[in-house]
Amino acid sequence: MMEPFIGQIMMFGGNFAPRGWAFCDGQLMSIQQYTPLYAIIGTIYGGDGRTTFKLPDLRGRSPVHAGTGAGPGLATVAIGQIGGAPTHTLTVDEMPAHNHTMHGELATADKQTPQGNMLALTPGTPIYATPIPADDRTMAQSSIGNSGGSQPFDLHSPYLGLNFIIALEGIFPSRN
């Protein structure tokens, strides 16, 4: 392999960081000890900028190219910006338009309460009544009403865990 650029990040299949490399795990680094790397990444990923700076933390994250999104609906992402979430719970506003079907039966009604029963219409009888607030009945939740458990769901694509490492030494990259 050719000598890396200082600050170059690559995936590595081992469970250790090779000599001259460090895991991209957000660790604090000494500016005095790693001055060339600090000159390249500064405090983009954290640190106090006087004695320390941080390496990027890619644990549990997918890297994306920084810059303006090149397509409809793609966001602008600043270098070092963190975004996204591992799970999400849908709100009513995020759900697609839909309806809940109410079931009934064209048969002689033989029950007085809605709980555990189905709406029935005796043929030839009126089906509407003047509302009487004191006599209002609630149907069983399974008939019509709220559904779902408001549980968060996983947003991860299928993945394979690998280590990201950053070059601590190597060629200092020129700007042009």
Protein architecture, described:
By secondary structure, the chain is mainly β. The chain has a domain at 23-59: Alpha-Beta Complex (heat- and protease-stable fragment of the bacteriophage t4 short fibre, domain 3), CATH 3.90.1340. Helices cover 4% and strands 15% of the residues. It has one helix at 35-41, and strands spanning 9-12, 21-23, 28-30, 52-54, 87-88, 104-105, 119-120, 153-154, 163-167. A 3-stranded antiparallel sheet has the order 1-9-2, with no helix packed on it. Strands 3-4 form a two-stranded antiparallel ribbon. The chain is rod-shaped, with a radius of gyration of 30 Å. It starts with 8 loop residues before the first strand and ends in a 9-residue tail after the last strand. The mean pLDDT is 87. Residues 7-63 form the Phage tail collar domain. This is Phage tail protein.
Secondary structure: elements and pairs:
Blueprint: E1 9-12, E2 21-23, E3 28-30, H1 35-41, E4 52-54, E5 87-88, E6 104-105, E7 119-120, E8 153-154, E9 163-167
Parallel strand pairs: 6-7
Antiparallel strand pairs: 1-9, 2-9, 3-4, 5-8
Pfam families: Collar
Protein name: Phage tail protein
Domain Phage tail collar: 7-63
